[in-house]
Amino acid sequence: MKTKKLLGILLASLLVMSLLSGCSLFSGGKPADKIIIFQSKVEITDQLKACAKAYEEETGVKVEVWETTGDDYLQQLKVRLNNNQHPTIFSLAPGAESQELKNYLADLSDLNFVDKIAENMAHEIDGKVVGIPYTLEGFGLVYNKSLIDASKVKDYDSFVQMLKDLKDQGVNGFSLSSESYFLIGHILNTPFALLDDPLDYINKLVAGEVKMQDTEEFKEFAKFMEAIREYTNNPLEVTYDKQCGDFATGKTASIHQGNWCYPMFKDYDIDFEMSLMPFPLMGNDKLAVSVPTCWFVNSQVSAAQQDAGKKFLEWLYTSETGKKYLMEEFKFIPVVEGMESPNLDPLSTAVSKFAAEGKTIGWPNSNWPAGIVDVYLQPVTQEFFTTNMSGEELLAKLTDAFVQAGNK
């Protein structure tokens, strides 16, 4: 009995010591000397790697950055999480994605800058801050001011007239691209966002209680899609790189993209002004603006790894070097008090302006069933652009896709 009692005292002492030191019993009581970041924003991969190197130079902690394409990021993340290839920090869209993986999200409420995050921007689940916002992002039509007068593109008729006029001039008026979100995930957000209660509609859509083909906003959307198919280049033949390249060289007058695409133009000698304007569905005059992605710390790695991940995020958002990368290299719009971006690009400037004026719609697509865009919506849209499928048939198939995705 004495031996058992002594052993219990020793174990209790060891536990107290580990808690006081902030280290995990299972990590050998040593601070982590390496963390792994897996994130979905391909546009900042090179800059993030440079940031990781700067962090290692300042702290001695190595940061490994894993790469993947944006389209299959979520599936790749799930595979890695389920196969013990655990990243320390990863990214997700707040909403359906983060809810699906909430068992992997560490509590970040104790980070030293959480109280400085702009109102309603930190991502919370069950009353705890679990996600740190990257930036504000907005999307709509990135357009060439030399070719398009935004004040004249206000609705379906003026949008189609713009496509026809530019086609007569030998210019592609508008472009989607073949990647899932750039093909359907972003543009389909607008009819949802214009509804009185988007979340309620999504829930009823998944339950089979409403249909897109019976809803005015989606009927109008279908007309836009038919016009895009008739008067623009087939998006299935256009990659993201080509879409941006054709815009930068004046071959395309507008592209459905967001301010995140501006770094894609760095290798081009652009001789025109550009900006962002709303997708004019039902006369919409607002940009779709929200927090697209958050950083999360993996709750399933060791305590030492979690602590190291938190320290990296604190460094990224509070140190001079970290803030320089966020603002100047990643070109993020500030979401934390005290951070300023001295030279916002024209697209981010437009997002900031629309946000400041309150002329924004939300991103209800973040509440769609997780994985629906890649697995269900993209194939339907590919079929639409390769057949004579009517707009009404497109809506019927998209409606079926929501029911399937929500009840899988």
Radius of gyration: 24 Å
Shape: globular
Task: Provide the CATH architecture of the largest domain.
Answer: 3-Layer(aba) Sandwich
Provide the domain count.
2
In the CATH hierarchy, what is the class of the largest domain? Alpha Beta
Strand content: 5-15%
* Mean of residue pLDDT values: 90
Spans where pLDDT lies below 50 across 5 or more residues: 1-28
Helix tally?
Answer: 15
Within CATH, the superfamily of the largest domain carries the name: Periplasmic binding protein-like II
Question: What would you say about this model in short?
Answer:
It contains 15 helices and eleven strands. With 408 residues, the chain is of the alpha/beta class.
Plain-language structure description:
With 408 residues, the protein is of the alpha/beta class. It folds into two domains: 27-136 and 292-337, D-Maltodextrin-Binding Protein, domain 2 (3-Layer(aba) Sandwich), CATH 3.40.190.10; 137-290 and 347-406, D-Maltodextrin-Binding Protein, domain 2, CATH 3.40.190. 43% of the residues lie in helices and 12% in strands. The chain is built from 15 helices and eleven strands. The chain has helices at residues 2-21, 45-59, 73-82, 96-100, 156-168, 180-185, 189-193, 198-206, 216-231, 240-248, 303-318, 320-329, 346-356, 372-384, 391-406, and strands spanning 34-38, 62-66, 89-92, 123-125, 128-133, 137-144, 254-258, 274-277, 287-290, 294-297, 360-361. It has a six-stranded mixed sheet. Strand 4 (123-125) and strand 5 form a beta hairpin. Helix 2 (45-59) packs antiparallel against helix 12 (320-329), helix 9 crosses helix 15 and helix 14 (372-384) packs antiparallel against helix 15 (391-406). The longest helix is centred in the N-terminal third of the chain and has 20 residues, at 2-21. Residues 1-28 have low confidence and may be disordered.
